[in-house]
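Sanity check

After download, print the first record. It should look like this:
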Amino acid sequence: MKICFLIPDGVGIRNYLYSPILPLLADKGAEVVVWHGLNPEVIDQAKKLNPSVAPKEFPFQNYREDPVAQILRDSVGFARLVVNSKLTKNPTILDNWLPKKTRKGKVSNVLAKSMGKMLSNFRQIEAMEAYIDQRYRKSQAYHKYKEELKQMMPDMLFCTHQRIPHAGIAMLAARDMGIKTAVAIFSWDNLPKGRLPVRGDHFLVWSKYMKDEMALYFPDIDQRNVTIVGTPQFDFYRNRDLLEGREDFARKHNLSPSKSWICFSGDDSLTSPRDASYLRDLAERLKHREDIQILFRPVPVEGHHRYQDVLNQYPQIVLMTPKWKHGNGWNAFFPYFEDVAILMNLAKHCSTVVNVGSTMALDFSQYDKPGLYINYCIDPKHPWDIKRTYQFQHFRTMDGIDPVGWINSAEEIEPKIDLAIHHPEKVGPDRLKWRDKIVFDGDGLLASDRIVNWLVNNR
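Expected C-alpha cells:
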C-alpha cells in the first residue's frame, strides 16, 4: 500500500514526521510519499530521527488562486461564523473573521462579507461550496495536482491540516480520481471557526467532543466517516527517552536546579496584545523571591522582540527561545526536533505554566502539572478584552469542571504561584478530566498507533 502525506504547512511536521507514524507504517509494509512545499531541511530532520525510513518526496506548489473562488470561499467562511455563532449562542465566534490589511484585501473582505450575509443556512452554504468546487475543477492548480497525483498514484492521500485552501484543491483532485482521502483536524479550536476548505472521504478527530462538534458545525459530513484517534501532538510526552534529569536540564539552560521553575508561555500578538505587560507583572511580583525562577518561552512564530524591554528590565527572567526555523510566513515555520524535547522537559520540571488561554496548559497536564490562566485587564481603554478571550467557544470544554487556576489580579500572582508550587492538587484539580475530554487516550495506545492502524485498515 502507498500512502501520501500531504503536509501543506510547517506546523504539522512535528505530529507526522517527528512522531512514530512513519516507522510504524514502514513496519506494516506501507510505502510512504511526502507531498510538501517546505524547506528541504524538514525531511533531513525526519531522516535523522529515523534513518531506516526514507520517504519519497514530491514538491507541493501553491498556485495563484482564482480570485472569484477566493472571495466565494471567504464568503462561506463568514457565513459559517454567523451560523455557528447562532447555533452556540456565542457571538465571540464572529471574532474569527479577521480583516485583511491591504487595499485589495479590504475590498475582497467587503465583498465576501456582503455575500456571506446572504448564505443564511447550511443548505445555502453547501450549495455555494459545491459551486466553488466546480470553479476549482477549472483551475490550473487542480489540473497540475492531478498530473502530480498520476505520478505518485497513492492508495490513500492523507492531509495533515484542514485549513490550507490549496490542499483542499489537491484533495478534490484526488477524490475525483478515485483516490481515498482523509483529513486530520489540526487543533482543538478549529471547528467552531468554520474553516474546512480541505474535504476528504474521512476525518480523523481528537475526541468524542470534537466528533460531536463536527456533527454540529458540518451536518453534511456523515458521522460514520469521522473517526476518533486522538492527536500525535501529545505522543512525545510518553517517550521517556526524551526526558532529561533536572540537573542536566538546568546545566544545559543555565538554570538553578534548587529553585522552583515557573514557565511563562507567550501568546501571539493577536491572541494577547498585552502579553509583555503580563510578563512584567509576573517578574515584578516575584522579583524578591530567591526560591523562584521564571522561564519565558515565546510563541515560536513571533519570537520575543515585543518583550525585549521587559527582559532588559528583569534580567533574572530566563529566555527559552523555541528551536524553530523561521520562514516567509507562519505556514513556512517549523520546529526542530530538539524543540519537542525542550517543551517536554519544561512541562516535566516546571511547577506550573502561566499564560493567557494557551494550549500549553494541556501540555503541562500530560505530566499532571497545573496551569494558571491570567484573567485581569491591563488597560480598560484598550479595545482588546481578556474577559472576551475566555468566552471563545473552545473554552466551553471547561464547562462543569475546574481544569486551570485563575489569576484574577496582579495581586494574586504570588499567592497563586505559591499554591501551584506547594499544593498543585488545589490548582485546576480537574485538569486530567479536561485533558481526557479534549484528547482521547482511553485504550493505552499512542495516537500514532491509532492513525497508522486506521490508514492501513482503510486503504
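If your output differs, re-run the checksum step. Summary of this record's structure: The two ends are 7 Å apart (CA to CA).
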